[in-house]
Every structure is written in structure tokens, then in C-alpha cells.
Amino acid sequence: MDAGGAAVTCKNELEKVNEENLEIVSSQLRQAMITGSGSQKVVGMDWSKRPGKPEISCDAANFENQTLLDSSSFVVVHGAGSFGHFQASKSGVHKGGLHKPLVRAGFVATRISVTTLNLEIVRVLAREGIPSVGMSPFSCGWSTSDRKMTSADLSLVTKAIDSGFVPVLHGDAVLDELQECTILSGDVIIRHLAAYLKPEYVVFLTDVLGVYDRPPSEPDAVLLREIAVNEDGSWSVVKPALQNMNKQVEITVAAHDTTGGMVTKISEAAMIAKLGIDVYIVKAATSHSLRALCGEVRGTIPDDWLGTIIRFVDKEIAST
């Protein structure tokens, strides 16, 4: 699951978590992980002291008959949203130049911000009884060259999954061989994880219903229900049938977004789809996101489901 930064933060308010969305998404992820007929009582795993709470709450007896969640089925990756983007754009971390004092300071500031968000997300997931562990690409040794991924050690991620944990990764500031440093987006991370782990499907959670043919704020914007990806990486809209199929889909990117926003999301989703893995882009904290997380939209798209499905189309098979 890829939780876009705009889906879990208030992107126009500096370093503010969208607590309501995050709690709903965490609850939905837990529902998608439930297996068997055991108790579904939520037993939290965040035993840290919280503001407004006089003491730490932990009752060991609650875990005696607790049903284990199917944590091996999920990996969570989240964007930065209102965390990190300001620090990165202010200092130019995404452009490189770690030898410059401002860039080096911005690298530190960016990582403080994005890891703060990561901890908040891990804590909310833990309060839902999800055994989540935060994992930073920088700390795991991930790096790039000319802003393209060159090193992504997934051994720690695999060990965490095999040990029954849900890894929670995030967009991060990383070292770059050519320009010294850059920003590695959550969307790029999820593509590399998908190529390695080969999941049944990938869910991108956003702050809009899906991909539109133009900025969704415009009155005539049309939600693209299904996008087909070809072997050469090109893609076309399958549903709905647009009047002008050659018309380029217009995408807007926030001025402070150093990772490419929806442009990067669609590009990475298309590369995931080329692997034969369906990608669902859907609005977070809705009934549609719950159905996507539970795998209920595989195969034929339900008429009452709102979102965008990106799929690989093998032309040789399609033509037979």
C-alpha cells in the first residue's frame, strides 16, 4: 500500500497530520489483514506516553488469546505531504550539492521532518494492533545516481516481513553518486518493492478519487476508471471512452512538491502494471479504499467502485 502524502497530511499546512484520515486508513488496513474467525478486538501496541494521558496503557493479559493478523500480506509506503517538502525545496536537496552548507542543513532538516511523520504513522498503525516498524531508505543504505535508484537493499524489509512485521517505509533524502544527494519519492520506492516482492496488487491512496483527464478541481474533469499499459510503457484510457483519445491528460503539481506529484505516481504505477500487477489509485479513507485494500476490485471493476485501475495489457493475448 502506498499512502500518498496528501492523503495522510494536511498538505497546505506545514507538518500537520490528517489524523482523521490516518486513523480510518489504519482501521481499513487492519480489516484487510484480518484472517480466521478469532477475536477482532483491537489491542494496541503503542505503549508510549501520549499527551493528555496520565500513564502508559499496556495490559499483557489482552494478548493471550489475540488472533494474529496476516501481516505478511502488506507493506506500507507513505509520501511526505506537508512534511519534508518545504525543507527540501527551501534548501534544494533534490537538486544535489551536499558540499553546500545550506543543502547539508536541508538534508538533515528534511530527514528530521519525514522521519517524524513516519513515527506518527507507525504509532497510529500500532494503536490499531498492526505490528508496524518504521524503515528509512537512507538508514537501509538505499541510494541513487543522477536521481535514479542504484542501490536498494531489501534484505531488512524481507526479514521484517518474515518476522511478522509490517514494514512502513517513506519518501526520504538519500545520497546520490553524481549529485551527492536527492529526494527519493515513496512512489519510486513502492515500484522497487513491487518488482521484488511481486504482490497481487498495489493500492495508491490519494486525496482525490483517482486519476482525472484534467485537474479534478475543474468542473468538466472526468475520472478515468481504467488505464491500459502496453509493453513499451505507453498507456491509454480504456474506461470511459473519451471524445478525444489523443488529448493528453493534464496533471498539476504543487510548487513545493520536489518528487513530481501525480506525474510520478502515474509513471511508477504504469511500470508496476507492466510487471503484471494491478494498481488501484483511490481516495483514502473511503469505502472505495477499503474495497481496494481488501482486494475486492480485482477482475471486473464493480460499477459502484470509484477509483482508477491501471493494468498491463498483453496485446498478443488480447488479439487471440
CATH architectural arrangement of the largest domain: 3-Layer(aba) Sandwich
Count the domains: 2
Q: What portion of the residues fall into strands of 2 or more residues?
A: 15-25%
Task: Tell me the series of helices and strands, N- to C-terminal.
Answer: EHHEHHEEEHEEEHEEEHEHEH
- Mass-distribution shape: globular
Count of individual helical segments? 9
Q: Identify low-pLDDT runs.
A: 250-260
Proportion in helices:
25-40%
Distance between the termini: 34 Å
Largest sheet: 9 strands, mixed
The first-level CATH class name of the largest domain: Alpha Beta
| Overall pLDDT | 87
| CATH H-tier superfamily of the largest domain | Acetylglutamate kinase-like
Number of strands: 13
CATH-defined topology of the largest domain = Carbamate kinase
* Overall radius of gyration: 20 Å
Strand order of the largest sheet: 3-6-2-1-9-12-13-10-11
- The structure class reads alpha/beta
How would you describe the overall organization of this protein?
The chain has 320 residues and is α/β, with parallel strands linked by helices. It has two domains: 167 residues, 3-Layer(aba) Sandwich (Carbamate kinase); 114 residues, no CATH class. The protein is 30% helix and 18% strand. The chain is built from nine helices and 13 strands. The strands form two sheets. Strands 3-6-2-1-9-12-13-10-11 form a nine-stranded mixed sheet, with helices on both faces. The chain has a four-stranded mixed sheet with strand order 5-4-7-8. Strand 4 and strand 5 form a beta hairpin. About 3% of the residues have low confidence.
